## 1
Amino acid sequence: MRLLRHPLVLAGLAILALLAIGEAVAPGFAGAGQLRSQFVIAAMLGVIAAGQNLVILAGREGIDLSVGAMLGLGALVAGNVMDGDNAMILAGLGAAVAVTGAFGLLNGLGITILRIPPLVMTLGMAGVIQGLLIILTSGRPSGRAAPALTRFIIDPLVAGIPGLVFVWAGLAVLLIWFLRRSRAGLNIYAIGTNQEAARLSGVPVTATRVLVFALSGAFSGITGFLILGYTQSVFIGVGNAYVLPSIIAVVIGGTPLSGGTGGYTGTIAGAILLTLLQSLLNAMAIEPFGRQIIFGLVLIGLMLIYGRQDRLRV
Amino acid sequence: MTEAAAPAPESRPPLRIRWALAFVVFAVFFAVNAWLQPSLLTARVLTSNLTSFLPLVLVAIGQTYVVLAGDIDLSAGAIIALVNVSVVTLIEQAGGSGGAIALGLAAGIALGILCGLLNGLLVAVLRLQAIVTTFATSIVFGGIALWILPQAGGSVPQAYWRGYAGGLGPVKLTVILFLVALGTAILFSRMRWYRHLLAIGGNRLGAFQSGLAVTRQRVISYVLCGLFAALAALCLVGETASADPLLGPSFTLTSISAVVLGGTALAGGRGGVIGSILGALTLGLINNIVFFAKLPYVTQDLVKGLIILAALAGGILGARR
């Protein structure tokens, strides 16, 4: 029974249930071709949720509402550096990560040194970046993905699995290792659990907190780069649809918003779960508003199962 | 447990300081606006500004109660959307008479309260995390709004928007509504439950242990937020004379900005409604300033974003002195 209440087990069961329902509603839903495209979409949510995961783990009301704007910025920078040239793919990725990482760093500095609450700082930063995007593009789509990048992301690479999914898997292994085995990763849990205790035991609290926000920026930039590759050109508001889903993937993956506990394994399950749910609703022949209502109700249901906080005790 | 923990101490002095700071920020932006737009200081322009800021002022008041209790309501904008389309549709279906308008107003307010109650039950009674839960309910409310009215449209009878644009003698109805909202907020802040709300937001466990009805107070704060969001929606109907399911959502994050600009701590327990009202007015003035500064169109959003970020950061830094 205890095992059943583990977020990861629950998310896994929910994923299997969604696949079964999907197959019953729309035969072929759990087929290889469908699953492949599902995983590509889940990977993009999974990468942006990785940064969100680190920020939330570090606690102190950690949350990053600027990931969507940074995603748009990353896509814009990558697209203009690449401009359809296969030789510039890595340069495009590097430029996107450098720029969004720098904005993430600014978030971190504002939150630690000026002590602005994360929600306020990242909300304000999102407004600034959106304004910057309008100036840079005059509101028109700008920049093109390199054709090889698009093929890498969509087409099967090995054993019918697209390259993007391997990238996500590699990133996941790295991140899980980082969180469980590296000093910096353990520091994130330490400041998320009890910042004062962490400080007293010599954890560089400020540096760690700045790091998680910078990494969140970098992961948003990577996601922008990937989405650009997936859709070939993007509009500046592309990231807005990712902000709250990135938080929800983390929370239904078992990392509470209070931080200090959880990890990326659950977030992977959360990202897959959210993606399957969306696509199941799309596969069902119901009106868009009906899909939206069911989506919201399922989220509340998921939260009811294991997103509950402890009862206040005397 | 034989002895109750000490109740959270009163925090009157810092409360006033926060309010004063929000006022200084407001005054600075007001002066800049008046400098760029000399006609601001006429009664007509002041009234029309107040009319366009009123919906945000109302949502910001409601959001403040939730934030003071240590929670947050990301569904306020969706409640506005839902009430907006419901009221217009209901008045149309009921025939558009005076009675239909009264029915629409009452139903809109009841609907807002109901939405707030649902949020309160999920967050306070079932103990779900506020940010994610109210985001989920916002998806549901927004979906129902689209179900009722898939795209902007509909219209309310002339009596509705004529009445909204009217007034008592020379004083516009919107000015009266603003003053009533302000008066209600001041009245509420002198009541006992408001003190309890501050205590709960400041130290939830401590408040619970000293016997305060924590769960009930948190539900009440969500109900108030739903109520004020509904009032904002009714004002929007009066202003636009039609319904738009996509009009509401932008109010959610703006209302939180207004609350923070007003000096209320997002962690709960410190701040107040008057600050939020000033914060909402300040955000409206920033829009005016960016418009009247005659900046190139493409740079307006960046300048606005930078001013808001600076004002938020400045307010938080100033409050700490």
## 2
Amino acid sequence: MGSKSATERALNYLRRAPRVTLTDVRDNPGARTKGRLVRKKDNMAGQQYNDLRGAGKPPLGWIWGDFYKPWQRIYPGATFFNQDINLRREYPPLSLLELQRLIDLGWLDPSLPIDLTALCNTRQYRCDPSLRQFGVQLTDEGASVFAAKVNLEVQWASETAIAAVERAGGVVTTAYYDPIALTAAVDPLKWFEKGEPIPRRHSPPADLIGYYTDARHRGYLASPPAVEAARSELALKIGYALPDRTDDAQHDMLAARKDPLQVFFGLAPGWVVNLADQTLLKPKNPRLLHYYSGRLDASKDS
Amino acid sequence: MAARNFASMAIRNRLYCKSLSSQSFLRRCLSSSSESNAVSSVGKLGTSQEEPKIWEDPWRHALGPPPPPEEYTTEFEESSAEWKFVERLFPHDVIPEPPKHESYPTPSGWRPPRDPAPNLPYFIRRLRNHMLPLFLESRRDQLNLETMDYDYVELVKLKNVQGDVFACERDLRAYLESKVGHSIATHVNELQGAIRVKGVERADVERFLFEQGF
């Protein structure tokens, strides 16, 4: 042993010594003073202070200043506590009674197809896409008195509401509008004044594909024969005779449907509205035409 | 001490020399501009404004002048055949006149006011959207000692009453008490032409107004 060199002995000592890491480093005793609460207001975290007490609070389960740590991430038990609050879709309701009243008072013209644009243009119904609202929900209040024969396009409809409209001889379609198309649809004049081309409607998101391809909901992506079958099925279920639509004076109006890419009736996506000259500018660029033809959407190909 | 003084003096001297040189530079510039003023001041000014200093944006100097912005042009076809579809999309700028219906009430229960107006000491004006001036109000009642919670009462407020408001209130109460079979409470605000009713539904007051012809 004694024959080893000093270097060798030092290395040997280090090899057997316990590892020294940063965590072993400590302050000298008395090197730091412990923090003390100077004033109460310095430690309120904005929670009970006068200015902030009355301010807007985030929804339950979320904490101001740290939106990366909602409760369902902090606490494993609260898995779905308001988790999707920023993703939920709201559909402001419109009852059949209100719809009938709008028609009775001349706000809506039943001889034209009624869609979200027509409803918002009355200024009696409001839909704000910036509040994560996704269109009109038709509720069944006043289903017993509804008598107008309309071609209606809504975003959500209950079964009773669909039955009431179809019993009166009308047609309901539920259609999805993505937020940009919805912004154009709720206030077309504002959109045209910006000089932007009419947007094309995108496909519904994955969780809504099922709704809008279902004929029982009168989805706009359902096949027409399936919708016809669902109409007669609902008439049997609720118990009314389905009016015959073959020799109807309003047959053309009732048969009118928007293309799944279309936002406004009669206007194709990609066109620019020239309000000053009262003309429409239709682009010819093949790349633009390709974009607005919707062939980029995989769902349209299949 | 001496060393520090020497150093500070050196700095001062250097600063002084710099200021001198800048002054002479300025003087040179001024003299040249005054000389050239006689020749063409406009042209000189124009070039000096257009050419930026190198030190202001050395990157620009190194890379050369930026290319002109790319222009995206697309050919388009102009047509006015579809303008009627655009006209459909314009909002109502005034409240529309209600259309003539074959029979009243309409499916939604609306009626126009009787024409001519009924011969009564009072008159109830419609709202500008052709609806009845009936509004619902909620007022806090007494504390319920069993639940230790406040009760609330629903009131119906009739507005736009012109003429003899008290006569209207008398008729309204007589009609409603005969309908619902118990006494009801009313409150008249003569200045505002408003009557508040407690203990009935809005539909009952609506029926009274329609029967009177308002």
